[in-house]
Structure formats: C-alpha cells, structure tokens
Write a structure and sequence with these properties.
This protein is of the alpha+beta class. It has helices spanning about 1-30, 40-50, 65-70, 220-225, and strands spanning about 90-95, 100-110, 115, 125-130, 130-140, 145-150, 155-170, 175, 185-190, 195-200, 215-220, 240-245, 250-255. A hairpin with a 4-residue loop joins strand 1 (about 90-95) and strand 2. Helix 1 (about 1-30) runs antiparallel to helix 2 (about 40-50). The protein is globular and about 55 Å long.
C-alpha cells in the first residue's frame, strides 16, 4: 500500500511538471542560434497549442483574482493592504532567460498598465493564465510614413496600423506577434487581476539592436494635415506613434518562480 501511494505521488509530480518542461524543451528546439528569421508557422502552431494547455497551477500560481481583492499577491503572500492595492507594482517572474529565448510571467493588479512598447525583430507568444487583459497593438505601416511635428514634445511621429484592440479573458487562446505583423507594438491594461505567460524570441538585447522602446499613440486625425494625401483608409484604424522615455509610472518588482523546476 505504501509503495502504491509513493507511485501515485510520483506520478502526480511528474504530471504537474510535464507541461512547463515540455514547453521549455519545445522552445529550445524551436528557437536556435542558427535561426535568422521567425520560426515556421508550423513550429509556432505547435508552441501555441502547448501554451493553450497551460494554466496557473502549471507555473506555481493560483487564480489570484480573489487574493488580489483581499490585498494579497499572486503567490498568496500578504504584501499590501487593501488601501494600497491600487498602487501595487506589476510582478515580473523569470522562468528562463537565455540568448535564444526568454520565458517569464507578468502578474498584474487591477488597472495596472504596461505602456505601448515594441519588440524589434522578435517573435512573442503570450498566454493569459487567469483574469482579463485589454490588449491594444499596432504594426508599423510600410514603407515608413514619418512626419515632423512642430509645437509638440515630439519632433517626429510614425504611422502605424491598429492590429488588435480587445479584451482577453482566461481561458483563451495564445496570442502571437511577429517582427512585422500581429501587433508588434502593444499595450497591456489589466481589466481584472491577471497573469500573462510570455515567450520572447530572441529576447531583448540592446547590443544586438533589440532595445525596448516606448511610444505614445495619437489618433490619425489629430496630426493629419488638410493636404495630407496619406490614403490610409479609415482613420480609426491608424495612429501616429511618437517615441517617449520609459514612463515614470511603470513600476515592476521581481517575483520568485514557484512552479515545477525545469531541467536545462
């Protein structure tokens, strides 16, 4: 009987760790140093399908919506009282950080925001683990449309097309962005307490030309001149983006990964 109980326990541990280990292994096979372009659609489909099956428990999280409303963090640890919960920072949890890809989790308190930013030359897969997240994303219009703006804080703006503007509520499918499509520049706003599992490949690296830049979007009609023959179609589908400094109100703290260990 004792041997049977040990076997059941070992099986449960194996099953709980298999999803995140399988995800890491598949990422290792998919994102290699020899890759000079984004992975094939087949490879991304395999990763997305595996990500679709992963939930909070697979990475050591519980559904933190109730904990957040009681002033607890996403790991069930009391860290803020109810008065301060609107000022809570976003928690960043590093699962794996390497030269070819990064796996991480962002845990959002209600109403927190990661401002509009880009992913130069990168492919990013995002899976909402729990809660609801509003995503607004753009892709650059090609060839580049750049305008000089007089009398503003920004000397130039560049035209971008709206790619995504919707709320994602778990459980939902994995979202994928590419270097030139899928909403490479995006903004996240937490509608409720939520968490997002991200895979970034290759990861940010300023020395390799992959610096994270932040932007402010302006409605197309706001900065369009009367004689502007842009021919962009419906104005609500486009915006002028101006690069800005890293926002002062972007607050993040590091969290500890508490999920099943990954064998590398």
């Amino acid at each position: 009987m004792c041997a049977l109980r040990r076997l059941i326990t070992m099986t449960k541990k194996k099953n709980s760790s298999s999803s995140i280990q399988a995800l890491y292994d598949l990422c290792t096979d998919t994102f290699t140093p020899s890759e000079t372009s984004p992975p094939s659609s087949h490879a991304i489909h395999k990763l997305s399908s595996l990500l679709d099956s992963i939930g909070p428990a697979d990475v050591g999280l519980s559904d933190a919506s109730k904990e957040d409303n009681r002033g607890h963090g996403p790991f069930g640890i009391f860290s803020f009282n109810r008065v301060d919960r609107w000022a809570q920072p976003i928690t960043y949890v590093d699962i794996h950080e390497g030269e070819n890809f990064t796996m991480c989790i962002f845990c959002f308190p209600t109403s927190s925001v990661i401002p509009l930013h880009d992913h130069p030359g990168m492919t990013v897969l995002s899976k909402v683990l729990y809660g609801s997240l509003h995503v607004k994303a753009y892709d650059w219009v090609e060839p580049a449309r750049i305008r000089k703006i007089e009398g503003t804080d920004h000397s130039t703006v560049r035209l971008a097309k709206l790619a995504v503007d919707k709320v994602l509520t778990a459980p939902c499918s994995t979202s994928v962005l590419y270097p030139r499509s899928g909403g490479n520049l995006h903004c996240f706003t937490a509608v409720t307490p939520c968490a997002v599992l991200d895979i970034l490949a290759p990861p940010y690296n300023e020395f390799a030309g992959r610096r994270c830049s932040y932007y402010r979007d302006y409605p197309c009609s706001t900065l369009s001149a009367e004689d502007d023959e842009s021919g962009v179609g419906k104005e609500e589908e486009y915006a002028w983006l101006a690069e800005v400094d890293t926002p002062d109100d972007l607050h993040m703290r590091s969290g500890t990964y508490t999920g099943p260990p990954i064998q590398k």
